[in-house]
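Recombinase-like domain-containing protein
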Amino acid sequence: MAAALREPGRAELAHQSTGRAPSAEEHALAEAMMDIYGSGVSDPAAMAKALTERGVKAPVSGRTDWDAALFEAELTAINEAYDAAYAENGIGA
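Predicted structure tokens:
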């Protein structure tokens, strides 16, 4: 689906409803989370442990020593940043 959204002539849909493109750190976190979820991990503490083991940099704080509280704080901050970008820029990045 993501590839279809990036087809020529549909670039405006690549980040539909986000108001901005994800940062490199946000993209790396999302990729790592999808891979970790795919391995069966769903508990926040276990997710944090896996992110630490992989050395994933937290997009907001820059930390690599994840715990459940940091995981929640980072996701909350990222969501708030997307909400603000959407409010400012509307649909599309």
